[in-house]
Amino acid sequence: MNSIRQRQIKCVVWDLDHTLWDGTLLEGAEITDLRPGIRETLVALDERGILHSIASRNDPSAVAATLAELGIADYFLYPQIGWQSKSVSVATIAERLGIGIDTLAFVDDQELERDEVRFAHPEVLCIDAEEAAGLAGRAELRPRAVSADARRRRHLYRASIERTEAEEQFTGTSEEFLATLGMRFTIGPATAADIGRAEELVVRTNQLNSTGIMYSADELAAYANSDEHVLLMAELEDRYGSYGQIGLALAERGISEWRLKLLLMSCRVISRGVGTVLLHHVTALARAAGARLIAEFVGTERNRIMYITYRFAGFEEAGEHDGITLLAAPPGPPPPPPPYLIVQTPALERGA
Prior knowledge:
Blueprint: E1 11-14, H1 38-47, E2 51-57, H2 60-70, E3 80-82, H3 86-97, E4 104-108, H4 111-120, E5 125-128, H5 148-151, H6 153-169, H7 174-179, E6 183-189, H8 195-204, H9 217-224, E7 229-238, E8 241-252, E9 257-265, H10 274-288, E10 292-297, H11 304-312, E11 316-321, E12 324-328, E13 341-344
Parallel strand pairs: 1-2, 1-4, 2-3, 4-5, 6-13, 9-10
Antiparallel strand pairs: 6-7, 7-8, 8-9, 10-12, 11-12
Helix pairs in contact: 3-4, 8-9
């Protein structure tokens, strides 16, 4: 178990002129291909689950046409093409993707632009365009494991964009919109095939992570096979497709008390209410085993929302040990899931 989190880039934000391609679009340059090594870099990072976006001062229609002609338009999520500063564009991309700005890399050929972004956002990794073709070899862009969810991450985001557009056009309440999605939330024991994604969730999830402790794949595999632990994976899907495996819970079994060592949920599903449903499920499992659930919480600069999740679920502070806040589940059975959500729970092994 390691509480030190290595830097991991989740999205590369690209300038265009003299970065993605040679020449300046607005000056009438004929763009027929990308710079050497760029196409291969886009593909390699995409296959690892690393997203791409754009921050460029340019004409949006000309850029859209050029990207389409080059066959790469679909790689870029929430491109920011206009006349605002690059630092504003970078911040907007992080917000739209729902990821921390410290997980972005920014590639630009102009030192002035890199300095402007670096000054506004010191957490962003700024890279000279001359180094762009070698990005796939950088440690920050080489995840230890690449799960099935990682390989389809861009497509999961595309589905999310469709959902968001549908929600913006919907005239009813938020709950009424959620009821139209036909959401199915599956919670089941982690299998050997899930361990890569479980480790990825631990490494990538900052805000909706109850402790910030980083478990290795070997540790997670051992917990999945342990009679003294429960390791759960949660997956969400709706009529637009799957969100992927988006939640994880690790509990240590005891006779009269279970310890919830880790609860985390992808930021992409924060508005769906499934984090509380997963928490209630673990509470119900402990209760069925004749035990009370005690959750461990370690506050960080970014995960206060998890503390709020526990408190809204009725958990009360029950002490502190070695910097870990203990939160006790309320007595009595947890409430049922919201009516817009179908919860599926394959039977746990080892009689939990």
